[in-house]
Amino acid sequence: MALIKDIFAGPFYTWYSPGLGGHTLAEAKAELLDLIEAEGPFDACLGFSQGGALLAAMIIDHQKKNPFGPNLFQLAIFICAGSPLLVTKSRQEPEDIGDPPSVASMAPLTTPWLGPYVSGHEPHPDESWNVFVADKVREAGLTIAIPTAHIYGAKDDTLSESLNLRDMCEPRRRVELDHGCGHEVPRAPHLVQKMTAAIQKAIHNAVVAH
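Predicted structure:
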């Protein structure tokens, strides 16, 4: 499998980085919420890898704060997505992050995150990054209730994270597809057709649910 760096010279960006500090996760959430407020609302969202993990964390936050309010999105599409994270101990307070659920209220739904980490982006020893656990999320009544599509690859080194996120979502409203490849968005025509069909089914679920 070709790596992005073998195809594209960069620069490369990240939504958040344990190596740059726990405040980067909170600031990434705040940045997206500002975008939604300024240009939304949006019916659906799509996230790949870390982007999917970020969206899932935001959806869980929103459900915690608005148990009876409108959904943040009507549909979420996750492609090779990571599991949502929570910083339980940070060296630096994030700036202008709004009013997220308290760390104390969310920490019991998580366990220490052991990676995998991108080289050079490992957490600082004075910080604690945790990952949400599907069973705990469901038991807390925070199952992601909106229709979802989960597209992942059996050869992906981070497959367990994608499956953990899948299990946080309402089974009756989720669509799954194993594209059989690694941590990538496949470009082979027959796989593109299968991904399209999965997303179309998820859209149908969202329309029916709405």
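Summary: The first strand starts at residue 44 and ends at 48.
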